[in-house]
Design goal:
The chain is an all-alpha fold and 176 residues long. It is built from 6 helices and no strands. Helix 2 runs antiparallel to helix 3. The two termini are 36 Å apart. The relative contact order is 0.10. About 5% of the residues have low confidence.
């Protein structure tokens, strides 16, 4: 039974969707941040010592990886990450909230270890090797979890870009 306003006789209005402008609007604009994370994963993966990439290529990739991390990351991923904090706290979807919290921990570990590697490097001591390993292995956990977490909206979800017939057309074909 729909309740109506006694004074006007009108049904109550549907609550408006949350505003997607300002800081919280960035929580829904993820394509640049997600694409940058994938690009950084690929450039970092190509630097893996077991691939034995020629030094001239590795040097360019390392520079690109570092510049992306230091210059692009704070402007694409940083605001998205910050605006997503409210969703982590107030989401009614337990799976997304749990994967978001794990992603936040992995992202923080990857960022801290990456900054250490950019400014200190991996000089061969125990801390440098540990930071290098932390950066490498957290990226291996981070990337598939980002893909899973954002699967429905991911830039990698090709089903969204393939033309599908409208829902009404499918129903009319089934009825015949």
């Amino acid at each position: 039974m729909i309740q109506t306003n006694v004074m006007t006789g009108e049904a109550p209005r549907r609550p408006e969707a949350p505003s997607r402008s300002g800081v919280h609007g960035r929580a829904y604009r993820h394509k640049g941040a997600e694409a940058l994370l994938y690009l950084m994963f690929v450039t970092g993966l190509l630097l893996w010592p077991f691939l034995e990439l020629h030094w001239s290529w590795a040097r360019g990739l390392l520079l690109a990886h570092m510049l992306l991390g230091v210059l692009a990351f704070p402007f694409l991923v940083g605001p998205f990450w910050w605006s997503h904090r409210a969703l982590l706290l107030h989401s009614r979807k337990p799976l997304l909230r749990a994967t978001g919290q794990v992603l936040e921990l992995l992202l923080a570990s990857c960022v801290i270890s990456g900054l250490y590697l950019v400014f200190v490097g991996a000089p061969g001591n125990a801390l440098g090797n540990w930071m290098s390993g932390l950066h490498f292995y957290t990226s291996w956990l981070l990337t598939p979890l980002v893909f899973y977490h954002a699967l429905r909206w991911s830039v990698m979800n090709l089903r969204r870009y393939v033309a599908r017939p409208p829902a009404n057309q499918n129903r009319s074909n089934r009825q015949q």
